[in-house]
Amino acid sequence: MDKRDVVVRRARANDVERVANFVDRALGGRGVIEVEKVITRLGDVGFFLAEQDGEVVGLIGWSVQNLVGRVTDLLIWPSDRRDDVGSALFREMEDAAMGLEAEAVVLFLPPSSRSELAEFGKTLGYEPRTVADMPRAWRETAYEAGREDDDEILVKQLRSQRVTSPL
Known about the structure:
Layout: E1 6-10, H1 16-26, H2 35-44, E2 46-52, E3 55-65, E4 68-76, H3 82-99, E5 104-107, H4 114-123, E6 127-130, H5 136-144, E7 152-157
Parallel strand pairs: 4-5
Antiparallel strand pairs: 1-2, 2-3, 3-4, 5-7, 6-7
Helix pairs in contact: 1-2
């Protein structure tokens, strides 16, 4: 697949049915995704959609709090599009996070696919970090996600200089 074919944009309110259909398709129809749940989720975090030939092929949900970005949702389907679609989604999300003055972005990987997604994250510049060894604001983000001091998460530092005083 040619990277130029992937178009990434912010999700809009009128995308809810397309997002619900995409998630349902990607999950193999294991349950109907309710439009109301998509609306609620779109209200909770920011989303970028990746499209190819007018069809949704990926989405990433994210937020920034206390100068730390976090990926809350990631779905790419079919999975063989992960490299190109994922790279495009992460690039847009990271640019937007930097626009919000984020120092870093953290990834909390689901246990079921941790090694496969960890390798993918590393190709995008995310590095494994032990929670206890991270700066305080980054640790707090990990704690909020239910992680412990000895857990390892993937982090990409976006700024060469950390923010040490209020902006």
